[in-house]
Amino acid sequence: MCGIAGILNFRINNSEDNNSLLKQRVQLMNNALHHRGPDGEGIWINEDGSVALGHRRLSIIDLSNAGHQPMHFSDNNEGNSPRYTIVHNGEIYNYIELKEELSKHGYTFRSQTDTEVIIAAYDFWKDLCVDYFDGMFAFAIWDSKEKELFAARDRFGEKPFFYFFDEKEFLFASEMKALWAAGVGCIPNQKMLFNFITIGYTDNPNQPSETFFENIHKLPPATCLKYSLRKNELSLEKYWDVDPEKQDKHISESDALEKFSHLLTTSVKRRLRSDVAIGTSLSGGLDSSSIIAIASSFTNSPLTAFTASFPEFEKDELAYAKQVAEQFKLQHCITTVSGDDLVNDWQKLCYQQESPFGSASVYAQYKVYELAKQQGIKVLLDGQGADETLAGYHKYYKWYWQELFRNRKLRRSKEIKAAKDLGITETFDFKNIIASYFPDFATIVLENRYLLNAIKHEDLTKEFVQQQSKEAYYALPERFTLNNALHFNTCVHGLEELLKYADRNSMAHGREVRLPFFRMNWLNSYSVCLHILKYGTAGLNGY
Predict the structure, then answer these.
(1) Which of 60, 256, 309, 538 is 20 to 30 A off residue 412, Cα-Cα?
(2) 215 and 285: one domain?
(3) CA–CA separation, 138 vs 90, rounded Å?
């Protein structure tokens, strides 16, 4: 887990003064990312001064100098001058298995790092290397032979990658503040601001590269980037997605449970690979509790768990967290979050987040990682992602009920009764029936409702609303089914926002957060989720 940065100059001015200025700019970028990698840094500039890469290191695997970045690698590892140079942020959890596979093809390695495995995988599989990675990552590889930069971001967007591109140069970094430090302008995106204020969106589902700043873009999740220095051309290509219509409808309940258990257990086991101390976040819910139950079976000593408590909040789950901590004999550390604390830390929190956020839960997470730093725990496992992949939010009830209603299965499914027995207050009324039969009409109604609310917003000037509402957007799944809703929130809109908060909050304190509910083949079929419990989504209350 680290911070990466880079500057590529199309109009080369190879002089001592130019190289000195280039180094200064990259150093400023590194300085802005210090919190992401407090254990060391590196800067590399190529011979003609057209490429400069920077790195801040958070040492997790192979703590020796062999893990120093930017890291160089020779073409096919034949001992000639290095062809590739990489800067990497994240973890490839299956690097041991990949290392064994690449060794069979003649590759040798001088370190125990996953970063070196990435370069070898790129040399062997080229662009397809990302298909083999189980992990969270944002990396950039400079190919000195082809004069091309190859960059990629993990499937769900756990690790960030921002970039700026004009006719003169291409810059990238883990956080926007590094781009600003290098001289990139800070121009607010009024359209994004309008949609955040009116409907709470922090991204644009229709343009996933858009940010709150007009001249800065983000590399979307599951996307590769290529920048040709010779041609001064930039291209993006999505390398992975889930087909929500592809389901194994014949899988039995027992087989689904067995597959689910195998996937999650393997994922947790791989994410325990570390050369530093590992702990866990513990909310008291099913997601984090499940991870602790599995992780405890692979560790010889008690894990350290971290919980945020809200004494005056009626939904405070500290009591549940304490039960889990007692059950698995955890070393339980608790941070109490108050309104006064939020006011005192407000500027620091905003500095780390860089863009608007709409929930105070962001601060609670910030305090959990702060506590982990105080206790000397560098890596934490977390249950994030379970709600989006396993239908853990109450809003999914209606999506599923509408789907059952259209297929004339709602009554005999007993889904509504099962939900009521669990104390769920969601209802299925006339509006849901209309939405079931006429989903396109329902989409138009929802879009118009949000636009009308935006126009009537009392805190916005009439001129601002008139100007920005022309480009207002409100997104919904392509089809009104549970699988499409899960896909939409996991891969299109919703989850990436939460992952961004987790990245910024953990990195603010130099901590690494790992999410076992994500792995490369985790979402091959949403039907697994539907067979986990006998009554579909009704049993998922509690996430």
Answers:
(1) 256
(2) no
(3) 7
Partner residues linked to 45 by β-bridges: 52
Distance in angstroms (rounded) separating the CA atoms of residues 214 and 528 = 40
Q: Which of 220, 238, 256 is the last residue of a domain?
A: 238
Phi/psi for 143 (5° steps) reads -100, 105
Based on the residue annotation, tell me whether 529 is a catalytic residue of this protein.
Answer: no
Average pLDDT, the chain: 90
Q: Can you read off the two tokens belonging to residue 445?
A: 């109604």
Distances (CA, A) of 225 to 10, 209, 234, 236: 17, 12, 7, 5
pLDDT over 70 (residue 530): no
Report the candidate in 487, 539, 541, 520 with the shortest Cα–Cα distance to residue 257: 539
Say if residue 17 is exposed, middle or buried (CB neighbours under 10 Å; 0-12, 13-18, 19+): exposed
Residues 223 and 257 in one domain: no
Dihedral sign for Cα 383, 132, 274, 223, please: negative
- Cα(243)–Cα(483) distance, rounded to whole angstroms? 9
Look at the chain and report how many structural domains it folds into: 2
Question: Across residues 459-476, what is the average pLDDT?
Answer: 83
Pair 327, 355 in one domain:
yes
Place of tokens 């990629």: 152
Contact yes or no for 362/451 (Cβ under 8 A)? no
Range of the domain at 216: 2-238
Q: Assess whether pLDDT exceeds 70 at residue 73.
A: yes
Q: If 0-12 CB within 10 Å is exposed, 13-18 middle and 19+ buried, where does residue 368 land?
A: buried
What pLDDT, in 10s, does the model give residues 210-254? 999 999 999 999 999 999 999 999 999 999 998 888 888 888 889
Strands 169-173 and 2-9: antiparallel
DSSP-derived letter for residue 70 is S
Q: What is the 3-state secondary structure (H, E, C) of 318-368?
A: HHHHHHHHHHCCCEEEEEECCHHHHHHHHHHHHHHHCCCCCCCHHHHHHHH
* Length of the chain measured in residues: 543
Q: What is the pLDDT of residue 16?
A: 67
Rg (CA), the chain: 24
pLDDT band at 488 (very low <50, low <70, confident <90, very high): very high
Residue 136 phi, psi dihedral angles, 5° rounding: -115, 130
Q: For helices 318-327 and 286-296, what crossing angle results, to 10°?
A: 10
CA 117 vs CA 9, 109, 198, 449: distances in Å: 28, 8, 45, 51
> Contact 239/131 with Cβ under 8 angstroms?
yes
Alpha-helix residue ranges (DSSP H) falling in 49-91: none
